Amino acid sequence: MNSNIISQENDLIAALATPLGSSALAVIRTSGPGCIEAVAALTDRPASLARCPGGRLRRAQLRDPETGRVLDDLMVGVFRAPRSYTGEDAVELFCHGSVPGVQEILALLFRSGFRRAEPGEFTLRAFLAGKVDLTRAEAVQEIVSARTARGHGLALGRLGGSVEAEVNRFKDELVQIMAGIALQLDYPEEETGQIPLDRQALRHIREGLLQLAASYSAGKLYQEGVVIALAGRTNAGKSSLFNALLKEDRAIVSDIPGTTRDYIESSLDFGGIPVRIFDTAGLRETGEILEGEGIRRTGQVLEAADLVLYLVDGVRGLAEEEEDRLDRAKASGSPPFIPVWNKADDRACLPPPEGFFPVSARTLQGMEPLLEEVVRRVTPEHRCQEESPVIDSLRQRDLLERAAAALQEVDRGIQEEMPVDAISLDVQEAIHALGEITGEVTSADILDAVFQQFCVGK
Ligand SMILES: Nc1nc2c(c(=O)[nH]1)N(C=O)[C@@H](CNc1ccc(C(=O)N[C@@H](CCC(=O)O)C(=O)O)cc1)CN2
Ligand SMILES: Nc1nc2c(ncn2[C@@H]2O[C@H](COP(=O)(O)OP(=O)(O)OP(=O)(O)O)[C@@H](O)[C@H]2O)c(=O)[nH]1
Ligand SMILES: [Mg+2]
Q1: Where does (6S)-5-formyl-5,6,7,8-tetrahydrofolate bind (predicted)?
Q2: Residue 255 among known ligand-binding residues
Q3: Gyration radius of the chain over CA positions
């Protein structure tokens, strides 16, 4: 990875900001000092574009200056420093969404003084220009990768500065406390012998930090989601339940055991949690080669699953080897599973054993309690209040925990009546960690690590 991306701040950069594919429009983003003139020189109206005020759109033809060939008839968005996303001069090209067309335009830009933007480089520049703090910059990528409306809403809140505000509030309180300590260090003669540190206030800040850190489990859940697999013996009704959950006729259902030969995957939104759900080949001892491979692949899916819905055909009942399998899974706790008693609509259905959820994939009876249980099982213990921000960055969580640990040291220091200057070091450590979250204090390595995770063009 490019580790000196920050030192190339003045380069002209360009990237496609939309997916490469056939579409109504495609957006190519460019940024850097002089980029307006550089793009203008590639059009049929260079003078007018070079004089174009910021925040305006102009229609133009893009031409290859060497051959005079027209590459596209497009709209050009002009932004003038510092009033742009990056804080630099910037130009956006709204072209026709043609794959070869877009590729030709990018190639022209790369021959004309632009280089390909690194992942996240536009947002990195916005951060370096002081347009956004690091939590908002991270939120930009979190918005792009959100998979449910809920995840998207939480990320939008972070872009709006919900995490930045909260972290700065904690930091300001600590800076106040630090100021009190500094005063005491400056005027030791006025020392009362009593350290003017409000332990209660410090504890309160520490709890707030830990609560925000703990919100990561919820943030991660809404962002990354969970994997749920349907398992059970052949004919239990896995594919029927899969179709019922997806509300579409996706998997083949038949009364022939072994209908599903390989796993099938789909996506669902379970109360805002993005779910990847797998229907698998039914489990049974078999000598048949093809099915044996299907079962091997079922094993792989089950291992990777966060939660397994284990289906039993309630008409047939539990097989002996099945009871053993469930007992073992229960004892080891892995993979976590919910036992489901299917075909409850059938008059011949046996009463469900203790702990089983009776359902019918056919009539959908019993689905509600089952789905509630699924959501309950995948939701982390920590449920945050609706208004409080939820973080989705491991980096931010680690720094919050580091700040909280430093405050614990402060508390210990006060209790053990350590010298004030020693205690102040831990307060400073906490302030420093919070400053790293917002990017107030940071290093090139940290920035590289953060922006590497971005899309190109963001
Ligand atoms: N065409 C386009 N759409 C976009 C973006 C973009 O960069 N370009 N965005 C990118 O993610 C998002 C919007 N975010 C943006 C943030 C700041 C500025 C900007 O130019 N800010 C200037 C001027 C503000 C103004 O004129 O009112 C500034 O902050 O000074 C633009 C978009 C989503 N939609
Ligand atoms: N009465 C009743 N029949 C069901 C129900 N669910 C599934 N079936 C029937 O059971 C048979 C097997 O269903 P599938 O969904 O294909 O079962 P499976 O577990 O995917 O089977 P394999 O892919 O072979 O492992 C089909 O004939 C379904 O119509 C149910 O809730 N009630
Ligand atoms: Mg099946």
Answers
A1: 29, 92, 131, 458
A2: yes
A3: 29
Domain termination site, one of 378, 403, 434: 378
Q: What is the mean pLDDT of residues 310-319?
A: 95
- pLDDT number for residue 267: 94
**228 and 369 in a common domain:** yes
Same domain (yes/no): 249, 372: yes
Range of the domain at 342: 224-378
The DSSP bridge pattern shows strands 273-279 and 226-232 to be parallel
Name the pLDDT band for 335 (thresholds 50, 70, 90): confident
Give the ligand 2 atom nearest the CA of 281. 25
Q: Does residue 1 fall inside a structural domain? A: no
Gap between the Cα atoms of 161 and 132, Å rounded = 9
Domain termination site, one of 321, 356, 378: 378
Rounded to an integer, what distance in angstroms lies between the CA atom of residue 46 and that of residue 36? Answer: 10
Asked whether residue 5 is assigned to any structural domain, the reply reads no
Residue of 230, 240, 288 to mutate, ligand 2, most atoms within 8 A of C-beta = 240
This prediction's pTM = 0.84
Q: In the block, which residue shows the tokens 């039993």?
A: 312
| Closest Cα to atom 1 of ligand 1 | 92
Tokens representing 242?
A: 């899969």
Mean pLDDT of 176-192: 76
Q: What average pLDDT does this structure show over 293-312? A: 90
